[in-house]
Amino acid sequence: MNILSLEFFEFFSCFFVLYWILQPSLFLQNLLLLAGSLFFISWGSAYNFYVLLGWTGCVYGITLFWRKTGRTTATNIILCVLIFTFFFLFRFYAALQESLKSFLDGIGLPIALPMVVGVAPLGLSFYVFHSVSYVISLQRTEVVKNRGAFPAHTINGNKESFFSFLLYTSFFPSIVSGPINRAVDLFPQLMPFQMRRILLPKQAVGLILLGLLKLFLVSDYLDKHLVSPVFSAPSNATPVASLTAVIAYAWQIYMNFSGYTDLVRGIGLLLGFHLPENFNAPYLAANISEFWRRWHITLSRFITDYIYIPLGGNRRGFVRQNINVLIAMGLSGLWHGVGMNFFIWGMLHGAGLVVLNGFNRLKMVIADDVKQRIPSRLAHEGARFVTFVFLCLTWVFFRSANFDDAITLLSSLTHCFSSELFDPHMLILWVLIAVTAFYGFLDHLKKRVWGYCEWLPWWAYPFGIAALLTLIFMFAPAGTPGFIYANF
């Protein structure tokens, strides 16, 4: 069920009314929340429900094993094997089966492999992430000062029951494209001591409207008019059109993903849940490390806490630190997709972080008087420009259908002569460049407007909502926008 569809609006309207009628009973609210979540994920295909239920049952069995034996290492190994199995079967096998059959034939093992045609189950990646957080948090419960332990005194109920775990993994506002909910953050909200209430209603409405604007007016327009025509046939695009498409895609994926996050955070507030912020003006980053502290924040923290730090982090020397970075970012790339392009995208980000680590180490030996020769403001803007260019180039691999298309598009960019950039038909390119250059000012302006809107009286909101929805219906492209990260 698309969260932007009429079906979801009808579903959520009925759900919302009944949910708050049941407010006096936390158990009945949670029962309805579970039923609504399972209905949401089963819409259109019971296949999604069966995979979610199978996964939840397997992970719950792993937690029972841990509680009975206390063998943390064995538990984590079994969990890793289960993750690999599910990802291979439901994400990678369909794409790799032909290559795997050719390999087996080549080594003299003509095995008839079962042919699988289909798509990954809805939300697989995100409830896998949620489950990892749950298992690790259970293991850390007994360690009072260990990061990530359950705050047991804030949870009103049995966090170890199958019902509570299934409610956690199937929580519908964030199952499609995140944000990634940590068990230690969501469980106290799933099992609170006090009755739930609608949180920050003005902010909730504002987040939903902002998400709709980003998705319908900005992301969908950029995709249909600038991005898809070029990336679907890069060999037919002019150099300036290619450059426009590359910059446009950087903004499209940001507006698409952050718009979805705004939408579900608003829905969460209406249901009494604080969901984590996932974006913080990422294109203001002055280096790749800062970008990952601003972009898909919940994924960045997950990779840091559950992959990078367990590998050793920066505790085992400079060389090992950078190897760990490359492994973590390579796995991040593979999580996004099966193709070589996603792996290249992840490794490019890993290489960028390695170069940054080396540069930071070099800065420690540069004399202070040399550093002071470049004005700090100029240095920061220059670093931000270099970072944005690097990000745009890596997005080419992320968006392109295959490696050859990515190389074709990058080759086209090398022919962007300065005379072409002043083509009067390329006004949209200069608009994108201006938006990028003045992004800091625009972000500050958005925060100011946001603050003013929260001071508006309630009677003014219907007029504002009507005006924004009219704007969307008048100028948005036809059709319902998709969610890029729903594919991952």
What attributes characterize this protein structure?
0% strand; mainly alpha; 488 residues; single chain; globular
Main sheet characteristics? none
Number of strands: 0
For the residues shown, what is the average pLDDT? 85
Helix proportion: 55-70%
Radius of gyration over alpha carbons?
24 Å
Task: Tally the helices.
Answer: 19
Q: From N to C, what is the helix and strand string?
A: HHHHHHHHHHHHHHHHHHH
Structural class: mainly alpha
- In what range is the share of β-strand residues? under 5%
Could you say which overall geometry the principal axes of the C-alpha atoms support?
A: globular
Low-pLDDT runs? 142-146
Compute the separation of the termini in Å: 16 Å
Describe this structure in words.
- The chain is an all-alpha fold and 488 residues long.
- It contains 19 helices and no strands.
- Helices cover 68% and strands 0% of the residues.
- α2 packs across α3, α8 (201-231) runs parallel beside α19 (461-475) and α12 (318-336) packs antiparallel against α13.
Layout of SSEs?
Elements: H1 6-21, H2 26-42, H3 46-69, H4 72-106, H5 124-139, H6 162-170, H7 183-190, H8 201-231, H9 239-270, H10 288-294, H11 297-308, H12 318-336, H13 340-363, H14 368-371, H15 376-399, H16 403-413, H17 427-437, H18 439-454, H19 461-475
Helix pairs in contact: 1-2, 2-3, 3-4, 3-5, 3-6, 4-5, 5-6, 8-9, 8-19, 9-15, 9-16, 9-17, 11-12, 12-13, 13-15, 15-16
